[in-house]
Amino acid sequence: MELLKQRILRDGQVKEGGVLKVDSFLNHQMDVTLLNEIGREFRRRFDGAAITKIVTIEASGIGIAAIAAQHFGSVPVIFAKKTRSRNLDGALYTAKVHSFTKDITYDVQLSKKFLGPQDTVLILDDFLARGQALLGLIDIVRQAGAQCAGCGIVIEKQQQGGGALVRAAGVRLESLAVIASLENGTVTFAQ
Ligand code: 5GP
């Protein structure tokens, strides 16, 4: 997606350890006009998939998914939670996820009442690095007996291998910007 790539080149900052900071338009301050175009592009790529629910993970996936949902007939968005709270009661689907950016393992959790075998799910997230967040969400969709139509990612860092793991799990993956390298502080996109 050319608009997104240009924005990454203009405003993205390469940090230590292969991290790309895009907090001026995606991860902290959000450019909702850009997010709307991102949602439109996800719809174009998954057109005809008869999505009934969009699943994402807190926190950065929420804004992306909520805006994208409006391009899918305003289907419900469910965001998996990373911490247990009193508001999260009843039966839960859970999966373990190791966070690349924070270097911790946590349980992602989603209430069983919101997802079941009748659903066709699109999973959306901001970044794909080593694939742990997506594999956790795919696991939850499978636990629910729902159909996974695929995953939509805003920025995939191809060099960290997560895309290969998701495809090896038999899941369709659509990434709007695919980065091949962040070496020497420079963003290089895959061809
Ligand atoms: P994975 O589970 O694929 O290793 O990492 C995906 C998650 O880690 C995303 O949900 C995202 O929040 C975070 N993440 C991974 N790499 C980056 C990065 O380069 N920049 C930012 N801002 N977040 C990242």
UniProtKB/TrEMBL annotation:
NCBIfam families: PRK09219.1 (NF006671), XPRTase (TIGR01744)
Binding site for 5-phospho-alpha-D-ribose 1-diphosphate: 129-133
Family as reported in the entry's similarity comment: Belongs to the purine/pyrimidine phosphoribosyltransferase family. Xpt subfamily.
EC number of the protein: 2.4.2.22
GO biological process, alphabetically ordered: purine ribonucleoside salvage; xanthine metabolic process; XMP salvage
PANTHER family recorded: HYPOXANTHINE/GUANINE PHOSPHORIBOSYLTRANSFERASE, XANTHINE PHOSPHORIBOSYLTRANSFERASE
UniProt subunit comment: Homodimer.
Gene Ontology CC: cytoplasm
Stored Gene3D superfamilies: 3.40.50.2020
Residue sites binding xanthine per the record: 20, 27, 157
Role according to the record: Converts the preformed base xanthine, a product of nucleic acid breakdown, to xanthosine 5'-monophosphate (XMP), so it can be reused for RNA or DNA synthesis.
GO molecular function ontology, one term from the record: xanthine phosphoribosyltransferase activity
Cited InterPro entries: PRTase-like, PRTase_dom, Pur/Pyrimidine_PRTase, Xanthine_PRibTrfase
Keywords: Cytoplasm, Glycosyltransferase, Purine salvage, Transferase
Cell location: Cytoplasm
Catalytic reaction list: XMP + diphosphate = xanthine + 5-phospho-alpha-D-ribose 1-diphosphate
Pathway linked to the protein: Purine metabolism; XMP biosynthesis via salvage pathway; XMP from xanthine: step 1/1
Pfam short name (any one): Pribosyltran
Protein name in the entry: Xanthine phosphoribosyltransferase
Domain named Phosphoribosyltransferase: residues: 38-160
